Amino acid sequence: MYFGIFFHLALIICCVLSVEIFIQSNFQSILSSLNNISNKVYRALNTDNISDHWKEKVIPHYAFIIFKSSLKALFVLLIIIFIFLIPTYFNNDFIYYSISLMGITESVLICFIYVKIRNMVFE
Questions:
Q1: 104/110 Cα distance (integer angstroms)
Q2: How many Cβ atoms from other residues are within 10 Å of residue 15's Cβ?
Q3: 72-123 pLDDT tens trace
Q4: Cα gap 30→73, rounded to integer Å
Q5: What is the DSSP string of the chain?
Q6: At 53, is the secondary structure helix, strand, or coil?
Q7: CB 3.0 to 4.6 Å from 98: which of 3, 27, 103, 110, for a disulfide?
Q8: pTM value?
Q9: Measuring CA to CA, which residue among 53, 57, 55, 30 is closest to residue 43?
């Protein structure tokens, strides 16, 4: 199957936009927040020193924070999926290319090189 220049350029644009969205949305802090709150919930539920009354008050608060963080993470991932679906509107074969072994390898290399260049420029 032949993949033309369109596929390579579209993949470069999609990868660069995806990396920027991850960086600008502070995705790592969203996941870290989810992990921290989940640990707090686990500790609160497994501690005998905390009264059940206090647990009833704090667990819904933690649940709301987890819900908000999960929605943020989902929103970021949906945006990235949407970015990869845009070129498919112009050529249906792009989705096959982007999930092929060659496309995934190229995506990883593009993202890695872009992050290295971005770090050199912004340091």
A1: 10
A2: 23
A3: 999 999 999 999 999 999 888 898 889 999 999 999 999 999 999 999 998 8
A4: 7
A5: ----HHHHHHHHHHHHHHHHHHHHTTHHHHHHHHHHHHHHHHHHHH-SSS-HHHHHHHHHHHHHHHHHHHHHHHHHHHHHHHHHHHHHHH-TTHHHHHTSHHHHHHHHHHHHHHHHHHHHHH-
A6: helix
A7: 103
A8: 0.81
A9: 55
